[in-house]
Fold each of these.
Amino acid sequence: MMRKPIFVLLLNMLLFCVSASAQETQKSEFQQRAEAASQSGGSIGAARYQYIRAFEDYAAKGQMKEGVECAVKAAAMYHKENYYKEAFDLLRRVDQAINAAKQSPSAAAAQHYEVTKVRMDMYMKMRKGSNVKDQLDIMEGHANAAGNEDLKNDLLYNKAIYYYSFGLNAQGNAVFKEMVGKLTGKKEYDKVDGVYQTLIGNARKSGNANMVAQSYSNYIVWKDSVNALKVADKVNALKQQIAENEAVISEKDSKLTSRQAVIITLSIVAIILAAALILGGFALMYYIVLNRKQKKTIQMVNDNNALKAKFIGNISAQLEPSLRKLDTRTPEVKALLDFSQHVQTLAELENTLVTKVETEETSVQSFCEGLMNEIRGNVPGNVTLTVNAPKVSAKINKEYVSHILLHLLQNASCFASEGGTIVLEFKKRNVHTCQFLVSNTGQVIPEEKRDGLFKPFAEIRDLTTGDGLGLPICRLMAQKMDGDLTIDPTFTRGTRFVLQLQI
């Protein structure tokens, strides 16, 4: 008497799950409009606008998977037209929406992976190798957190493209070998073939002859080796089919026994499903509680960091009046005063990093010449000073840009070689991107020390020889202007710093 109500209950639950799944997979009106505009070959801007609306609509409903898919397409359309700033701004919004959504950590990690992948594609298009590598490292963390083998295979594919694109053939071969080995081990030969064809096609489109040669050579070797595996698979498939036919014959001979076994098996499966539902409910509650605790912990850490920066800035501000009562001509006292001011500046920049800065239209040539004239008196007479800047204007924050470039020029004057040159250049890379470049001939900074130059408090120093906060402050100023400050790894005649800004 009890079996029928239990069966009805399970059937209702199944129908409810199917109905809920159908509702979740239904596309929103905005997404349908975006796809229609994209397929009809209409305006990219119109399709992009509808995809953004679709993302916002999905996010409001808590359907983050569909929302992220639409946002990723919109961002790709932005950077296809070289609107990098808009693309980066949209991706930041998507990451914030993912963090705010109530979903499992693995689902959030998978969505963050797709967002980071678009950033990697943009940096790849801009040929910024170090930024591409950073994004790949972040993608690897998300893929591991998601526990998704498809993402891990996709990561290997993008790593191979990165290595081949930047001439790192040995690393590219190793990564590609690992990826092919995984897919071949699963007998997913069509996927391997598709990956090779995609890689070769991308290499041809980008005009990368090295990547085409490497990909095609590896493809031929793999194609030869896999033919033998396919033959073996066919033989095994035939053996399996024979075994299955024999099993069918045996099953017909013992029909009654088989039916009883099926009934028992179905009963066991029903019990297991019921237990799985109960355990799944407990697991879901556990992850919800754990996620809330993690959010509180992250918020507490962020609050503590902000308070720490404010505390250090206040301490430095309180020390400054006492230090000024001492003899400021003493090198140690002067060094402490400079250190105190730098710490205050650093703390202020960290606390206001997301605050936008004002810009103004500036004549680039006269601006650069004025900065060079400020250091002219401190440069040895046998060092040549050169300004290469066109007669154009750009919208910049003159206070921050002046501070950064003067710091770089003063450092260049200290380390310029005898009879060498110091050059200040301006280059406009595209409609929304420009660069100021400061270079000097002389000793090259070792590669292993370059990253440490931009990290504050990276080493214990004698403050009378400098506190090492100048470049970290300059990079924070650049980031506050939606830009970055880096060392050009391709410059080998000395050192060249690159200040890249979005205009």
Note: The radius of gyration is 31 Å.
Amino acid sequence: MYSDKVMEHFANPRNVGELESPSAVGEVGNAKCGDIMKIFLKIEDDVITDVSFKTFGCGAAVATSSMATELVKGKTLKEALNITNKAVTEALDGLPSEKLHCSVLAEQAIRAAITDYYKQKAIDPLPIVGCDLKCDGCAG
């Protein structure tokens, strides 16, 4: 059912926990399935220098959170915004169709954290993030 990469990221998730003094935080959730993801970013000169997550949810939610943190670390904010749920899914060698929403949450959590960063800098995130999410961390 799950790929070896999904199982590895579930059993040994990377970047778990809460960063001390993060530059930005993004939290998203899906009331339907109960998964909640929180991403913490440290940003210096528009580069994500450190990242961590806390996720409440199923194994796929933990695995997609873990992979998303691996994909954004060291990226510029613009590069991180280009990481899609499809990229997260592909990096995990696929997800069952009923678990694809977890990769969507991972993408949304990244966008919510970057939106939070821009708001803290008093920059309108909508033109940059292009956010079409309907979450508390989003200007959309």
Note: The longest strand covers residues 35-44.
